[in-house]
Design a protein that fits this description.
Blueprint lengths: L1 H22 L2 E7 L6 H8 L8 E7 L3 H9 L5 E5 H9 L5 E5 L7 E4 L13 E4 L6 H11 L8 E4 L3 H10 L3 E6 L3 H7 L3 E5 H5 L5 E6 H6 L1 H19 L4 H12 L3 H11 L14 H15 L13 H10 L1
Parallel strand pairs: 1-2, 1-3, 6-7, 6-8
Antiparallel strand pairs: 3-10, 4-10, 5-8, 5-9
Helix pairs in contact: 2-10, 6-7, 10-14, 11-12
Protein name: ABC transporter substrate-binding protein
Family: Belongs to the bacterial solute-binding protein SsuA/TauA family.
Organism: Pseudonocardia alaniniphila
Length: about 325
């Protein structure tokens, strides 16, 4: 009886310890745009990299950059992944104290046009579509059109929302003649007969696009959670970039983005391109960010602050150190 009693007591203690361990799990709401850049997040969720660090991550897809920025500012989201210029806009225009904490990619954007557009000059007097007209990839579009001989004002700008929405719009509305799209949306558009007029980076040079962005106050209050999140993200990124995981990672793209196998395979090939794919370990592209700030200055007429004012890589560096 003493042995039974001891076992029962041990069971009670074990159950009691399990309650705070469960309760200690940290829940995060992470807001993202739909796209291939979410592949590391898919892996971190499906392979348990978040869970093993005590993180419960809810991924939400944003309809637009305006909604995403507002959600971060209001505390609805703890972390967002988006074009870093959106973070610059939050800091300089909305006066929200944010910081980019990890890089990601160059955006993979391509100028996609209707079949009747044969050159950039054909867009004179036509409608082009963007997410928000005053941030990020809209500036890429304006710059590509300028270098093709069109000044802003020689075309009409229509705000539609995130890339997935722009794809649907340009497929269904033939009067909307051009947009910046990235894979898999650019591939889907071309399969439907739209035309590719070239990549943004081939025209404007290196570009720091997707970045993880947080409120500085939240990061200061939750450094351990942020570091664990970044560890899991980097581990997910390493997993999907490992060639031996190609088939599984391609399936993650197909399932996560609802893609046919051929589009998923083509998208994975872009994601893993050694030169221009997802940045190794999510590294931050300094020269690419300088280009982001230059474009913002050119197209808003307002000089940004020094680049270092917009990011804090200390959490990222600790995450890398923790991974070994």
């Amino acid at each position: 009886m003493k042995i039974v009693g001891a076992l029962l007591s041990a069971a009670v203690v074990t159950m009691a310890l399990a309650v705070p361990a469960c309760a200690a799990q940290s829940s995060l709401t992470v807001n993202v745009f739909q796209g291939m850049q979410n592949l590391p997040l898919f892996a971190a969720q499906q392979k348990g990299f978040f869970a093993e660090r005590g993180l419960s991550v809810n991924l939400e897809i944003t309809p637009s950059s305006d909604e995403q920025r507002a959600g971060l500012a209001d505390g609805k989201y703890q972390i967002i992944h988006c074009g870093i210029d959106n973070g610059v806009a939050m800091a300089d225009v909305a006066k929200v104290d944010v910081a980019a904490v990890i890089g990601g990619d160059n955006g993979f954007n391509r100028l996609i046009v209707q079949p009747d557009i044969h050159a950039i000059s054909d867009l004179r007097g036509k409608t082009v579509i963007v997410d928000a007209p005053d941030t990020a990839y809209a500036f890429q579009l304006y710059e590509m059109l300028k270098r093709g001989g069109l000044d802003k004002g020689e075309y009409t700008i229509k705000s539609v929302g995130a890339t997935a929405k722009r794809l649907v719009d340009i497929q269904q509305n033939k009067d909307d003649k051009a947009s910046m799209l990235n894979p898999p949306f650019a591939f889907t558009a071309q399969n439907d007969g739209l035309k590719d007029q070239g990549s943004a980076v081939s025209t404007i040079g290196p570009y720091q696009a997707t970045a993880g962005i947080v409120l500085r106050s939240w990061a200061k209050d939750h450094p351990d959670i942020l570091i664990k999140y970044l560890e899991a993200y980097i581990e997910g990124l390493r997993y999907v970039l490992d060639p031996k995981n190609k088939d599984e990672a391609t399936k993650m793209l197909a399932d996560g983005l609802k893609l046919p196998p051929d589009v998923a395979a083509a998208t994975y090939a872009v994601a893993t391109d050694p030169a221009e794919g997802l940045a190794k370990d999510g590294r931050f592209d300094g020269p690419g960010f300088d280009n982001v700030l230059r474009l913002r200055a050119d197209w808003t007429g307002h000089a940004p602050r020094p680049a270092a004012a917009y990011f804090d890589l200390s959490y990222y560096e600790k995450a890398l150190a923790g991974l070994g």
